[in-house]
Design goal:
Length: 510
């Protein structure tokens, strides 16, 4: 069986399993949304037990990872799906997912609670969902443990989007969730369209974006069916990269929106600066001036609206260390001895290590071809920098969850193949498994022991292995890198020749 059909079959099965678990309704993976309504979001309320749900989600993750690996092999051997088929499949999956209840966490309920509070004219940065209206609101009161007492940590642009959705939902939890899912689905498709436009002139690069983003079962599951706002931030950030070289006003608005939704997306602003660095100083100053004013035109009123408490909780959350990161191995040993001071130190150390890794990656990737048109060197340079910066941060941050990886996978889709594809796929796969079934409630004792055991005792070591692999790759001899680049260029020339000799050169083969 060809890699293309393994990609298609495994991906389809993965998506069907995810959809099936969501359709089944309230479970250890799917937060309940209350009584059924005539309008979406819809589910069957089958009451599946946590063991079955976890098994189905693990199988979906395995099939999703197999699909991505097979898809990369198919692209490398020039086995492409037809663009029309990709479009129909992506729109179809996203549409189905938007009608189903989100799974894998209860974060979407927190988003909507913050939006509900903001839409009512109150402050989600100062008041927790359980405090607001004494926890009796049908939307804000639905927030799940352990986040019921937590005010918002998200930027004002995210809060504005959440407030808009909450206003449209008009107090109906299911309707509000549906509108949020639609917004996430549209953002996912916007990223897919942007990646497709950037690679339109290269059939192989275009097909790579389909595998790593558009039809990626793991990303679809985390971002669309999972309903995570990271996909909205990614849409703004990738849009900013696409416009930055030629449309500074548009790029400024988009990067401002990205930073205003989640502050870590400021890394994309640094990537834009890197890509423009070779411009003459007067031209660079004018370009950056327009971009800055455009961004401030969005961010200043957004912060005036969100108020002085916007970043209060963000500072308090700085010492968190998630269970599946390698840093947890360190804090588990040192916390009993030194107390909270360990976590105060881990954050700055991780930031420094992330910056160092980003520099190593950027040096290693400099001059490497991308899927972007050769004449668009500035955008290509921005993409390389965005990938290096986000990967450095993501691998070294003490607090990381599966959907955080989306900020890396979007620029990764625009690069040419390297060992990093496999390393980052391994990281994402491990994190997805580590957070099965997703909620902190509803698990049997056996499922809780198994999933927490993997999350605490296995995942950190596997994530550390990924970091070591990436570090080794950055230190490979330059001539090895050049040889791999020449090999890829040779494959690209053969691919172009094959397409040129085909009777329908403008379209990849079925």
């Amino acid at each position: 069986m060809s890699s293309k059909w393994v990609f298609s079959g495994s991906g389809a099965l993965s998506v069907l399993l995810l959809a099936g678990v969501a359709l089944a309704g309230d479970s250890a993976a799917v937060p309940g949304l209350g009584g059924a309504t005539w309008h979406p979001t819809w589910d069957l309320d089958l009451g599946l037990n946590s063991g079955l749900v976890s098994g189905l989600l693990v199988l979906a993750a395995v099939l999703g990872a197999v699909a991505i690996g097979a898809g990369l092999l198919a692209v490398r051997s020039c086995q492409f799906l037809a663009p029309r088929s990709v479009l129909l499949a992506a729109v179809g999956v996203v549409t189905v997912f938007t009608f189903l209840p989100p799974l894998g966490s209860a974060d979407h309920l927190s988003y909507l609670a913050y939006g509900r509070i903001a839409a009512a004219g109150d402050d989600p940065y100062a008041e927790s969902p359980i405090e607001w209206r004494a926890g009796t609101d049908p939307v804000a009161g639905a927030v799940q443990p352990p986040w019921q007492d937590t005010p918002s940590v998200y930027g004002p642009v995210s809060t504005a989007a959440q407030a808009l959705v909450a206003w449209a939902g008009d107090g109906s939890l299911r309707l509000t969730v549906w509108f949020w899912q639609i917004l996430c689905g549209l953002a996912f498709l916007a990223v897919a369209l942007t990646l497709d436009r950037l690679t339109r002139g290269d059939a192989q690069a275009r097909a790579r974006t389909w595998v790593l983003w558009t039809l990626n079962p793991l990303m679809l599951g985390q971002l669309v069916l999972g309903g995570h706002l990271d996909v909205i931030s990614v849409a703004f950030a990738i849009g900013a990269l696409a416009f930055a070289a030629r449309r500074p006003a548009v790029a400024g608005l988009l990067i401002g929106a990205a930073v205003g939704s989640k502050i870590t997306f400021g890394l994309f602003a640094l990537a834009i600066l890197w890509g423009l660095r070779h411009r003459p100083l007067p031209q660079l100053a004018r370009h950056l001036g327009i971009m800055t004013l455009s961004g401030l035109a969005l961010l200043v009123p957004a912060h005036l609206w969100s108020g002085r408490h916007t970043y209060d909780r963000l500072e308090a959350a700085g010492g968190q260390v998630s269970l599946a990161t390698p840093w947890r191995l360190l804090t588990n040993e040192l916390d009993p001895v030194f107390g909270s001071v360990v976590r105060d130190v881990v954050g700055p150390v991780a930031m420094g290590l992330g910056a160092a890794l980003a520099v190593l990656l950027l040096r290693r990737l400099q001059g490497r071809p991308t899927g972007i048109a050769a004449r668009d060197t500035e955008t290509a340079s921005m993409v390389l920098a965005a990938f290096a910066l986000t990967t450095g941060w993501l691998l070294m941050t003490p607090y990381s969850l599966p959907w955080y990886d989306s900020m890396v996978w979007a620029p990764l889709a625009l690069l040419t193949p390297t060992l990093l594809d496999g390393a980052l796929l391994a990281r994402l796969f491990v994190l997805v498994l580590a957070y099965v079934p997703g909620r902190v409630v509803g698990m049997s004792v056996q499922v809780e022991e198994l999933t927490l055991g993997f999350r605490k005792s296995v995942a950190p070591w596997l994530e550390l292995a990924v970091i070591v692999t990436v570090l080794v790759w950055t230190c490979l001899r330059r001539k090895d890198f050049q040889a791999s680049t020449v090999l890829h260029d040779d494959e690209q020339r053969r691919s172009s020749a094959t397409v040129a000799n085909d009777s329908t050169p403008a379209r990849p083969t079925e």
